[in-house]
Design a protein that fits this description.
single chain; about 60 residues; 5-stranded antiparallel β-sheet; globular
Length: about 60
Amino acid sequence: MPVATAPTRPVAVQVRIGGRWIAGQELGRRTGAAGADEVLVSHHGHLVWVDQHAIRGA
């Protein structure tokens, strides 16, 4: 099972979903099962792992 790392504080990021950029917070990172790097993002209390290529700094 991949191990997630966490930043010392949540980091403000933007996530590209459906062609739009939405605000969120980065809570951690991991290498997924397929070997792709993923970022754990919180958006209004919802948590989701997102491919790192869909993330940009806020």
